[in-house]
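Hi everyone, sorry if this is the wrong subforum. Our group has a chain we'd like a structural model of before ordering constructs, and none of us has done structure prediction before. Sequence below.
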Amino acid sequence: MTNARKTAKEKRTNVSFEFFPPKTPEMEETLWRSIARLEPLQPEFVSVTYGAGGSTRERTHATVKRIQDETSLEPVAHLTCVGASRSEVDEVIRSYWDAGVRRIVALRGDMPELGAPYRPHAEGYQSTPELIEGIRKIADFEVIVSAYPEKHPESASLETDIELLKRKVDAGATRAVTQFVFDTEQHVRFLEKVRKAGITIPIVPGIMPTTNFKGTKRMAERCGATIPSWLEEYYIGLDDDLGTRKLISAYVAAEQVNRLRGYGFERFHFYTLNQADLTFAICHVLGLRPQVTTAAPEAAQAS
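Answer:
Right subforum, don't worry. Here is the predicted structure as tokens:
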């Protein structure tokens, strides 16, 4: 092992987890089981996604508030500027601040019609940098943004994406979480280009589980992520073998994170898909162990 790799592994690995708001009582039960399982790992924060066109606005807010009230976790709310006026978005921003939320993931967002080109709301924020400026004017939030090591599918080039990331930072963003990428070298090359462009904020790799490989491929097609041939070969013939797919998914993710740590990355954002076991296993491999947490008063009274 090189000295660089030793140094990277001696540092604490910081993680964050992403969830999506549940649509049904059964999905809600699964979500809160997952949160309870991962909470003792004491992540930096947990984020809650926002549906296309703001379609999950109320459910996102309710999930974030419950995490804030009933757990020891720090919730982070996703917020988009699509499909809403400035006044509507500003109202959401103020409601998060009033609820005790201090970090927001600011995103442009997708149109509610799958695959439809982006159209800004006539009375809304026209871009992510503009949304970030609006957030920062309302309150002193930490603003997290997205980054695309393989470029956004609607972007003209990777250089255009990096220019946009620079505008987000100039508007007040303090951290970027990447779209999932399975080629580790892509992360490394992207970081080099970002630093060369004068962007100094932390770039946090997003880690996607591949247990549901067909679902992963569909997501990759929508967001412009490449599926390497070696990864596709891992899952050949396993459509009806969930147990083996879980083992392979854990191996792939743990190997990727360990390689990225070898290059000096210290933070990782896990797209949990509201499932805890795989993320927990990978964090265990990374040396993270459950810690005793103190429940919020509301949660203690309800138990």
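For your construct planning: The chain has twelve helices and nine strands. The first strand starts at residue 14 and ends at 19.
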